Amino acid sequence: xxxxxxEDHTASRRTGGRTAAIDRSDQDAPGGAHSATAIPDxxxxxxxxxxxxxxxxxxxxxxxxxxxxxxxxGGLVAGPTTTSVEVIxxxxxxxxxxxxxxxxxxxxxxxxxxxxxxLRRERVSTDTGSHVAIVDVPADAxxxxxxxETSESLxxxxxxxxxxxxxxxxxxxxxxxxxxxxLHLVNLGDSAKARAYKELSARIQxxxxxxxxxxxxxxxxxGVGKTTITTLxxxxxxxxxDDRIIAIDANPDRGTLAExxxxxxxxxxxxxxxxxxxxxxxxDFSAFVSRDxxxxxxxxxxxxxxxxxxxxxxxxxxxxxxxxxxxxxxxxDCGTGxxxxxxxxxxxxxxxxxxxxxxxxxxxxxxxxxxxWLEANGFGELVRNAIVAINLATQGTHLVxxxxxxxxxxxxxxxxxxxxxxxxxAAGSVVHWDELRPVTRHAARELAALVVEGLxxxxxxx
Length: 462
Hints:
This protein is an alpha/beta fold. Helices cover 31% and strands 16% of the residues.
């Protein structure tokens, strides 16, 4: 007959994160019969409760809490002693004492005043609980300095309250028609096209401090429209800005920049160098330049082939130094090539550069080699800030993938602008800004805005 022994049975139940363990010893009845009324000898129940939450001090008690300071019993002196403690109440920042003013009856006045001083109370949580600590706030963080506004911040948009009488008349065909048809009672504001035009003008009109800015226009290959791009850039800048813009033809060979405007004088850069000592103001200097309808001044290069090579870097520095006195922006048509003596003097003064590329394979490759030459000769920063103007009026543009040319230059320079074909520019004669196609004027204005955005706003007294 089998020997049946008593066994311990343990039942475990988990409910709501709590665990109950029951130890039970059952006795078998004689003969193998189980006793239904058997009661366990021992019953053990274990309950696991979550840890009690860490006490958190409310925010309103942090400001008036007193720090817990440990006291060293060994430092106490036996016997009665008397110690005088001077209590200094920190003054509230910015408060002024007036005659007849009553004292603050609040017992927390000193603590609240400390919040306005350089000491700040903060609650810090550590392994032992939550404590209040006093944090020293730096002087600049406690009392931030206010930067005074300049006079340029007082703009008309900020000061004038626009209403039906002061709001300017809208620009744009339909909006203007509604304004006139309603006898100036309905003003829909500028059209989307007019707003975009004004936003682009605002980008071009950004102000500068600290002297003139120099922007050379260069390339290694002739015939890609470098002089055309210089003319368009200068006209776009002069048309939108109210300060003086000049374009200098620094081509050691005979340049044609002055032929893009109605020439009003036969003076050249050579005459400026020769009579530099007699130039005492803008009136004197203006006698050497020609001005177009956009107020762009152009200083012609030497027209005598026998003297063209004599224009060197020293001569350019003389002309550039005089131009910097009377103009805010100085554009330089650098001529063909980049290894002549004037180029280094031009690049040393440059704040940004414009690289001109044509739409053909060899023209794009030579423009990229120009960037490589600049990087190899210590002008890498100018390359990263450069703008490439792709002249689509050159031959072969319709045969190449201009998008691929643009993608190549995007990896090397800041921005790329496409200058579309325009019949007036293709003629190679005098350029009239108002007679250019709208798409051409827009591309030139976009180029001008990008150039201005890459120029330093303030560089000291350079």
